[in-house]
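Input:
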Amino acid sequence: MTAGHGTPLKILYFAWVREKTGRASEDVVVPQGIETVGDLVAWLKARGPEFEAAFARSDVIRAAVDQTHVKPTSLITGAREVAFFPPVTGG
Amino acid sequence: MAVRVQEADFDLSAEVCALSASRTDIGAIVTFTGTVRGTAHGSPIASMSLEHYPGMTEAELGRVEAEAHRRWPLEASLIVHRVGTLAPGDNIVLVVTASAHRHAAFEAAEFLMDYLKTRAPFWKKETDASGVGHWVDAREADTTAEARWQINAPSKAAE
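Output:
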């Protein structure tokens, strides 16, 4: 099963990525061919100006798949949720 | 081993008492408390809000804590991190490490903080005196601090 066969995927946005997209989370159906985190970012960016703005600094934005840190080249196959956020600043 | 994410404040001495109660295997307890600075880039701040990723935060703190236990002979540990709106001077984070000997406790406490700062999904936003919010930028120094543990990993025997 891949995320590209009509399976809903939960996307979460945090901090200024959340502010720029104007939403904390959403359920999306990702089209076939979107296989990596980087593919997903490119697809999200094309959805509207707020996403274009949120992901304009996509080299800065970090991602997690199913609550684990991942790289842009990581696969989203079978994922339940993908989160996008700026570098963390806790502690 | 325990991690907690909470809005409420914590009491350092109560946490240490609970962690070490009726234990005789512990010879060293190290605590670190992080607090809210009243200034940012030389200007006063009115408040700081901490956002996090519920679920992943606890999972990531647990992974960081488990890694510390893998590297050092710890008898007990605790991470408490606050979220929500905090005022200058308020507590943000508490790390407690307990071991038979001090070196493991000292090193593990520093490791936990260095790893937590670069891995745990928290984000700080400072609000200035005029009510304008500014997201805190990640510091390159924090990444450097985390990286040194990868080349300088101590052995289990480092007591």
